[in-house]
Design brief:
Layout lengths: L42 H9 L1 H7 L1 H4 L24 H14 L1
Length: 103
C-alpha cells in the first residue's frame, strides 16, 4: 500500500492491517517505516544514453528498420527467437530452457 495523498495519515494497511511503522524499542520518538519508496527520475539517464551516437543507434533499432517491409523486428536478445527449420534436440533444449526462464 502506498501511503500518499489521502492515505498519508494512516498507520496501518487498509487491506491486511499490518503496521506501517516498526515498533519502538528505545527512547526515540521517531517513527521508522518498514519500507521506504524511493523515486529516481529516468529522464536524465535517458538523456545521457541518447547523447552517445553509438548507444542511441542501439536504442532506436525498432525505428531504423521501419522502412524495410517484411522485416522481422525481434530484439537481438529475445530468448524465444527460433529460426525456421527442423527442430533438433539442441534447438528443442534451447527453447525449453527459454520457456522455463519465463515461468
Amino acid at each position: 500500500m502506498l501511503y500518499y495523498l489521502e492515505n498519508v495519515e494512516l498507520t496501518e494497511c487498509m487491506t491486511c492491517e499490518h503496521s506501517r511503522y516498526k515498533p519502538r524499542t528505545g527512547r526515540g520518538k521517531t517513527l521508522m517505516a518498514y519500507k521506504n519508496l524511493r523515486y529516481f527520475s529516468i529522464t536524465p539517464r535517458l538523456q545521457r544514453l541518447f547523447m552517445s551516437p553509438r548507444t542511441a543507434k542501439h536504442m532506436t533499432w525498432h525505428q531504423s528498420d521501419a522502412d524495410q517491409p517484411n522485416t522481422k523486428r525481434n530484439h537481438a536478445n529475445d530468448p524465444l527467437e527460433v529460426s525456421i527449420g527442423p527442430i533438433t534436440r539442441a534447438r528443442a533444449k534451447k527453447l525449453k530452457e527459454a520457456l522455463n526462464g519465463l515461468v
